[in-house]
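Subject: Arc family DNA-binding protein structure
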Amino acid sequence: MKVRDIAPLGIRIPPEIKEKLKEKAKEEGRSLNSEIVQRLIRSLKS
C-alpha cells in the first residue's frame, strides 16, 4: 500500500486505552499507528 493511498483519520480515545496501546506497540516494536492498524485488521477478520 502506498502512503498516498492511506487516508488520515483522527479519533478520540480515553487516555488509559492510548497508554495501553502505546505499551503494546513498544513490546511489538511497532509505532502506535501500526499497532492500531494491526489490531483493526485482526478484529475485522473475525
